[in-house]
């Protein structure tokens, strides 16, 4: 990043402007190239959704799938969402990309239901900028109508920071989504700065405990306490609690012993293409 370049340039001394300029120029060029490719990615159909199952602790059945975007820039290059979603937000592309994600995820869920698969919830990530579009609720309503998916099979995942900011307006929007029948989850829970009195007023259905707390749950006493506290908090507010990033048996045991409701992670399955998901989960090819 540019900051790193600047820092390194400083480290090398004041009279190393040449190094600084060259490295910074290369970074700027790289970034502009990525932006240009991103602007064309939708029309070139380079995006794909992968789906990761979410499992109910009690029944051990799939109760949901999280849709996760992938960008296939070229045959051998996949750019992860952590790299391009922030850029898409910055350059004003998150609205069209986000709409594509929402529509594709709803269409896929409806197609699986029509194929006779037991219905489950499709969970879609929505970034802060996307949620703050004036017509976001209308877009969700339109996509549900156009895809004929019943609203109860759609869940929107928002991070704490996306909704904490500018409270009243977002509480109202969450209320409208809730009125449509859409479910709402707070993603990466515990990493933001939710005020508890505010949380109480949010019409959300689930808290998704951030993966960073789940990772060392079996060995780190602080993480264990944090997760127990989030489960208790969620249950006291009448919400379900989901653990993200479950990778092993020890984590699973801890989460079971501490009444976590739902689980997601590599221990069960990695995110998969639609056809791999259908094959792995229902034993069909599509
Ligand atoms: P997230 O919503 O918290 O998604 C969970 C991330 O953790 C995903 O990374 C998933 O592949 C990964 N993961 C799941 N289980 C495990 C595990 O057991 N171990 C480890 N190490 N990782 C696990 P991914 O797909 O790279 O997505 C990263 C983030 O990008 C997402 O975090 C979400 O914030 C964002 N994102 C992904 N798809 C979309 C999208 O369609 N729209 C928007 N706005 N954001 C998206
Ligand atoms: Mg998510
Ligand atoms: Mg509700
Ligand atoms: Mg998360």
Automatic annotation (TrEMBL):
<feature type="domain" description="EAL">
    <location>
        <begin position="31"/>
        <end position="285"/>
    </location>
</feature>
<protein>
    <recommendedName>
        <fullName>cyclic-guanylate-specific phosphodiesterase</fullName>
    </recommendedName>
</protein>
């Amino acid at each position: 990043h540019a900051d790193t370049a600047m820092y390194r340039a400083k480290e090398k001394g004041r009279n190393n402007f040449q190094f600084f300029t060259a490295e910074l120029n290369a970074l700027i060029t790289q970034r502009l190239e990525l932006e240009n490719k991103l602007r064309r990615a939708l029309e070139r159909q380079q995006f794909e959704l992968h789906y990761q199952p979410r499992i109910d602790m009690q029944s051990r059945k799939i109760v949901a799938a999280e849709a996760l975007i992938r960008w296939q820039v070229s045959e051998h290059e996949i750019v992860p969402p952590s790299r391009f979603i922030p850029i898409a937000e910055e350059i004003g592309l998150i609205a069209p990309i986000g709409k594509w994600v929402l529509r594709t995820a709803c269409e896929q869920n409806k197609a699986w239901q029509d194929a006779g698969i037991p219905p489950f919830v499709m969970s879609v990530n929505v970034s802060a900028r996307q949620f703050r579009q004036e017509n976001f609720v209308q877009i969700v309503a339109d996509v549900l109508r156009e895809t004929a998916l019943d609203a109860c099979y759609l869940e929107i995942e928002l991070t704490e920071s996306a909704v904490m900011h500018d409270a009243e307006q977002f509480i109202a929007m969450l209320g409208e989504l809730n009125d449509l029948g859409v479910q709402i989850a707070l993603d990466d829970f515990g990493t933001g700065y939710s005020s508890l009195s505010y949380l109480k007023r949010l019409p959300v259905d689930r808290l998704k405990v951030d993966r960073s707390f789940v990772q060392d749950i079996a060995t780190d006493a602080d993480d264990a306490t944090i997760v127990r506290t989030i489960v208790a908090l969620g249950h006291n507010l009448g919400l379900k609690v989901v653990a993200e990033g479950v990778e092993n048996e020890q984590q699973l045991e801890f989460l079971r012993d501490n009444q976590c409701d739902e689980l997601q992670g590599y221990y069960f399955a990695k995110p998969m293409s639609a056809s791999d998901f259908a094959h792995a989960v229902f034993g069909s090819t599509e």
